[in-house]
Structure formats: structure tokens, C-alpha cells
Amino acid sequence: MQRFQVTAQAGNYPVMIGRGAWRELRPLPQSSYSSVFVLTEKGIWQHWGKRFMREAALRKACPIFVPPGEKSKSLAEVERVASELARAGGDRRSLLILFGGGVIGDLGGLVASTYMRGIDCIQVPTTLVGQVDSSIGGKNAVNLPAGKNLVGTFYPPRMVLADPAVLSTLSPRIFRSGLYEVIKHAILAGPALFDLLDRHLDSLRPDNLKALEAILGPVVRVKIDVVNRDERESGLRQVLNLGHTFGHALEAATGYGRFLHGECVGWGLLAITILAEQLGYLNAAASTPKKGVPDSRRIRDLVWRVGPLPSIRNIPARAIVKLLLHDKKAVAGKIHWVIPERLGKMRIVTGIPLAAAERAWRDLRGMSNPR
Amino acid sequence: MQRFQVTAQAGNYPVMIGRGAWRELRPLPQSSYSSVFVLTEKGIWQHWGKRFMREAALRKACPIFVPPGEKSKSLAEVERVASELARAGGDRRSLLILFGGGVIGDLGGLVASTYMRGIDCIQVPTTLVGQVDSSIGGKNAVNLPAGKNLVGTFYPPRMVLADPAVLSTLSPRIFRSGLYEVIKHAILAGPALFDLLDRHLDSLRPDNLKALEAILGPVVRVKIDVVNRDERESGLRQVLNLGHTFGHALEAATGYGRFLHGECVGWGLLAITILAEQLGYLNAAASTPKKGVPDSRRIRDLVWRVGPLPSIRNIPARAIVKLLLHDKKAVAGKIHWVIPERLGKMRIVTGIPLAAAERAWRDLRGMSNPR
Predict the structure, then answer these.
(1) In chain B, what residues touch A83 (CB-CB under 8 Å)?
(2) Chain A contacts of B147, Cβ < 8 Å?
(3) Rounded to a whole number, what is the distance in Å from the CA of B147 to chain A's nearest CA?
(4) What is the mean pLDDT of chain A?
């Protein structure tokens, strides 16, 4: 098991990742809380609830169930969950454990940060996306009809406990969707981690605990290093948005839910890599080719290797470009693009012509998965 | 005009109170914001919008209107306002000015703290309650069906600008309801401010700017002093809840809206004073009688002097007692009562028998306003 420390304005917190991470809840002084609630999904809780309660040595916890899927990331659901907390006697000294994937973490983080103006929460991510990405950094949000993640807060959890054993019951598709975020972190980190992932990608399966443990630690460290240097996304943290500008547009274009978030990131990584190539930021000469393969090609190959992505054949480039401008990270209508220059080196670029983005998407649509 | 400084974890901010306070917006570097929005009510904006824009020297601001009344303090309204911001191109660098009373401040504070995970806001309170109380301290919230102010955040504004001139268009009833919060602050502050208020109460009218200016400064200082010592309500700030335990129960009993918040505080101050007398906390001997009048009597007299309160004849004590337990400040079902021992001296008491609270309310119902 690996331990990291995340620094946050409102209080530092530990991230424990590896087999047995749930046991790290045992030292928690349960008696300092008036009650314990677990926000989760029925399916996950049926599989893992008993084991979690046992390993965490929780005497009593009241589960609150949320319907699976992105649709639950809404203010209406915040109201429903908060009302359930109130009905069940939740007060300012209650603890909310967020036991689930990105949706549970995002929705529950916002509930925890606003219920009675803030109660303690603990992130127990149960998906790959959750474990390597969304549970860390204290960001939460729900969606508006007008766009994704438009209402939320920065609110650090008390701790993050990620046990990869829980990934064994993930569907292959959901597991794969997390691998795209893993690849994103490897691109940000640089050649060393990228090479490691490149070698081990095929052994990363929901049931291969050993392989997962070996790769999750270094991947999580990438996110933590960035967040520790820029909690509030004032600059550096923008790099975590790699692949997400196109990705969020694709999610919006498909009405949130048809594609998984990670799948959109997968397409987004491909699109931004093509754009970076076409604009000359990421070209064979400037990068550090390994065995003659340029970085751009290596990124694309690794993304394709994860497996089949749902088709974007009927997502026209025009629709994507229109939605790009609605991205939350746009300021005064200006998109801040995270452009890979080479593995481990990103550049924030504004003012890229939308026509260039449109061409990149069109070319991506025309490409067939070489595998 | 008087200036105060409020200290807050997330950044200190100034409070300007007095005639001409709106002009203090002029030094604001407007160009650092991508857009300016004003959250307000149609009636208030029609009366005061032009003058505000002129005095604040605002070049351009987009008003967003909220229906008046407590019903607007809901997550549904947060969603509506945030969606309107998104539609109008609001981004992370937008500024939200909260131009209105307690409802606008509470709703708008929550919108500002969550829209794109937090944008700048400025409080411009236009009611007496807003100017002396709710605009200061960074607390905001909306209601759930299960209770009042159950969802909110701590989120300091950039500044608070309170010009009492705006009070001149308040209805007498709304103005009076603010006087109960003024009295609450005077009880907390002690004999000096209480005497001052006692002498000047009758001259406090919406159109008497001079009298208002003389009293508002010292009253606001009471709140600021408390908030500066305990931003997050970990202890001391509880005293601001004086009269609010009964008050919130009365608001709930009347379905929020039949009584104004300040009117419930008025009844709450009377009830807690009676309870404190009956339990022997606030008795003639221990307090510092002025001209032979004990503090308990002075408090009650001052509250009654404000004017007629809507009748509580059909609010049975049993209903109130049942609702007391739902107060947000209750922890593990325990009510933390703020009990006046004398002017300027409060005691936090737990474990008061509900039967005692019930008797106090019953006795209050039986009392006729002596005026």
C-alpha cells in the first residue's frame, strides 16, 4: 500500500492506495461523529458493503442510495440526498462516506460541502477513474442543463481510501474507460511512466491486483503532485484538463450518458494529439522518439490499444466545435487548450482557430482504429 | 460613513456602512471581471437600480431577477439562477452583485460560491436585516422541505456596501422586522448599546437617515466582532443565534412566509427571555437594573415597543416544541440554547427540559402586548 499527502487550504489529507486501504479507516475516532452515512449505489453496496464495514470496522452506518449514471449529478439529487440526511437525523457532526465512482464522489462531495454548511466526508473510490483521478483534489460538481460540472465547490475530504480489489467487479467497459485517465496521467508525467504503462497495459485487468497495484501508485502521484502545487486551478492544474476540452464537448454532444466520461477522454486525447500534430506543437522532430516512433504516434497507439471506443461516426465536427465554447474553463469566450508538446511537457495555448479544431475532429472521425 | 474589516479564512473584506457606501465600488477594477451580474428583485431594482449603477459607476451589468420571498431560497432557484448565468455567458471571472435583502444574499451567496466552483460576489444589502446582520459573516443557505438553511456554505464576499438611504422605500412592516435583529445585537453587546437603542428606537424610521446612520454603525460592529473571533461557528458565534431557536421553530410552524424572519426573531427574543427568567438565569437580582427595571423587563419592553407582531394565538406550544428539535444547530438531538443572563452576557446551555420551553411559549401566548 502507498500513502500520499495532499495539501489543501482547508486542511491536508492522506490518500491511501493499495490492497487493504479500507482498514485505514479503523484509527478514525468514530465516536467523534454523531452518525455515519454512506452514499453509494445499490449494486456496489450489495457486492462490497459487508466487506467494507468489516474491514473499516464500522459499527453502524446508514446507506443512502443514488441511481447509477451521470443523470444523478444534478441539484435535484443534491436536494434529495440532503433531505434524506435531514430525515435520518444527520447533523453537523455527521460523517458522509462516498463509496462509489466519479458520480458518487462528485455528487457526494457537493452534498458534504453544503449540508449544514459542510460536514466531514471520506472518499472511497470504487472505479478506476475514481481511484486515479476524481477522488483526489477536492473538486466536486453537478451538471446544469446548460453544461457539465457548472455547480460545485472545492472541498477536501478527510481521507481517500482506494483499494483496487474493488475493481474486480467492474464491467470491462467501465474499467477500460478508467484506463484513458491513466494514460492521460502518464502523458503528463513523462517518458518514464509512459514507458511503464506501455509495457504493462495489457496486464491491467480488473482481476489482476498485482499489476494494478504496481501502476496505480505512480499514476496517483502525478495527480497529487499537480494538485499540491495548485489546489484552486489558478494555473498549473489546468494541465489535468488534457483531452478534456474535446472530451467534454463530446459528452455534451452525446447528451451525457451515451458515452462514459473516460471514453470521451479517450477520444479527447486522440483529438488533441492530432490537433497538436497538425499545428506543429507535437512533431516528430521536436519530441523524443523511442525506437524511431514519435510521441504523437505513441500516444495514439496507446489509446487505441485500450480496446474499442464507441463510434463517433455520427458526431459531426461542427457540433463538437459549437460545444467547445461552452466549456467551463473558457474565460471570456477564450478556450485554454492543453497542448502536448512531448511526453511530460504541456503548453497552455489560447487563440487556436476553431477551424483547426474542426479539422482535427474531422480527421479523427475519418481514421479507423488501426487495431 | 463607517468602515470595518471582517477577517475570514478565505480572505478579509471591508464592510462600508453609511450614506454614499455604493460609491465605494468605484475603486473596483471592473476590467478584471469578464462580466458583471446583479442578482436582485424587480421591485428593488426599479426603484434603485439606476442610482446604484450611477453611484457605483458601473458601466454595464446584467440584472437577474428573483421572485421576492422565502420561497426563492431553494436549490431549484439556485439551478435557475446558475443556468441564467451560464446562458448569459457568465464564466469564472464574472462578478455577482447581490442587491437585495436576506433572501437575495442567502440565495446569491450560495450561487456565487458554487457557480463554476466559486466566483466573486459583493453584498449590497437593501433591507435592515440585511444591513445589520445577514450580509456580514459569509454565511449563506437555502431551505429544504425538511428545514430552513440546511444547504449552504461559508463564502466571504469581496465587500459589503450598506447605504441606509435605500431603506426609505421599505414597507413599515419589513423595516420593523429588521429592528428585532437590531435589538438582538444590542442585547448581545451590553448596557451601553442597549441604552442607546432604548433612547433612539422611536426615531428609527425608514426615512430618518441621520438616526439610522447613528445606530447602524455600532450595531454592525457587534456582529463583526463576533464573526471575527469565530468565522466558522465553532463556539462564540453561537451567541448570534439568540432568539433564533424559538424563531426558526415559529418560521417552520407557519410554513415560512406567513411571518417575516425578523418577526419570528422578535417572538423568539420574547420567548427566550421568558424561558431565561423562569429557569432563573435572568432574574432581577443578578442583573443590573436600570432605575429599578430588571433586564428581563427591559428586553421585553423594547421588543414590544417596535410595534405590532403578527399574532401567535393559533401556534400551539406543542407544535413549537416538536420543531425545536429540527434546528440545524442541534447536534445529536441536543439543542444549544443561547440564554441571556444579563445584557451583554449570554450562556450556552444544553439539556433544558422541553417541558420548560413549552411552558415559556404557552405563557408568551397568554401575554397580551402591554402597549
Answers:
(1) 144-146
(2) 86
(3) 8
(4) 92
Asked if A210 and A155 sit in the same domain, the reply is: no
Domain that includes residue B280, residue range: 183-366
Active-site entry in B244, B298, B300, B345: B244
Q: Identify all chain B residues contacting A329, using CB atoms and an 8 Å cutoff.
A: 92
Domain count, chain A: 2
Q: What pLDDT score was predicted for residue B229?
A: 87
Q: Out of A233, A290, A297, A341, which one is annotated catalytic?
A: A233
Report chain B's mean pLDDT, rounded to a whole number. Answer: 92
- Give the domain-ending residue among B169, B203, B223: B169
List Cα–Cα distances, B333 to A97, B130, B141, in angstroms: 21, 30, 21
Question: Active site includes B117?
Answer: yes
Q: Which residues in B lie closer than 8 A to residue A145 (C-beta atoms)?
A: 83
Q: What is the C-alpha separation between B51 and B45, in angstroms, rounded?
A: 10
CATH number, residue A146: 3.40.50.1970
User: Is residue A369 predicted with pLDDT exceeding 80?
Assistant: no
Task: Check whether residue B129 and residue B187 sit in a common domain.
Answer: no
Task: Please say if B244 is a catalytic residue.
Answer: yes
Q: Are residues B118 and B248 in the same domain?
A: no
Is residue A40 left, alpha or beta, with left meaning phi > 0 and alpha meaning psi from -120 to 50? Answer: beta
ipTM value for the complex: 0.90
pLDDT in tens, B80-127: 999 999 999 999 999 999 999 999 999 999 999 999 999 999 999 999
The reply to whether A346 falls in a domain is yes
Tell me what the mean pLDDT of segment B190-201 comes to.
Answer: 96
Do residues B152 and B221 share a domain?
A: no
- Whether B198 contacts B190, CB under 8 Å: no
Residue B155 lies in a domain: yes
Q: Out of A139, A169, A199, pick the residue that ends a domain.
A: A169
Q: Is B257 a residue whose pLDDT tops 80?
A: no
Residues B23-51, mean pLDDT to the nearest whole number: 95
Helix (H, G, I), strand (E, B) or coil at B314: coil
Contact of A61 with A97, CB cutoff 8 Å: yes
Domain membership flag for residue A371: no
Same domain, B221 and B340: yes
Looking at the structure, tell me whether residues A313 and A187 fall in a common domain.
yes
Residues of B with CB under 8 A from a CB of A: 9-10, 34-35, 75-76, 78-79, 82-83, 86-87, 89, 91-93, 110, 113-118, 139, 141, 144-147, 150-154, 233, 326, 328-333
Facing A117 at nearest CB: one of B116, B152, B331? B152
A233 vs A226, which has greater pLDDT?
A226
- Angstroms from B329 CA to nearest CA on chain A: 8
Q: Confidence class of residue A328 from pLDDT cuts 50, 70 and 90?
A: low
Residues B183, B219: contact at Cβ < 8 Å?
no
Nine-digit cell at B273?
A: 427571555
In this complex, which of B78, B86, B153 lies closest to A113 when CB atoms are compared?
B153
Check CB contact under 8 Å for A82 and B144: yes
Query: What is the mean predicted confidence (pLDDT) over A223-230?
Result: 89
Beta carbons within 8 Å of B15's beta carbon, 6+ residues apart: B3, B4, B5, B6, B136, B159, B160, B162, B220, B224
Cβ A93–B332 below 8 Å, yes or no? yes
Interval A53-76: pLDDT, tens: 999 999 999 999 999 988 999 999
Find the CATH number of the domain harbouring B263: 1.20.1090.10
B174 belongs to a structural domain:
no
Q: B126 near B44, Cβ under 8 Å?
A: yes
Are both B259 and B143 inside the same structural domain? no
d(CA A248, CA A242): 11
- A149 with A203, same domain: the answer is no
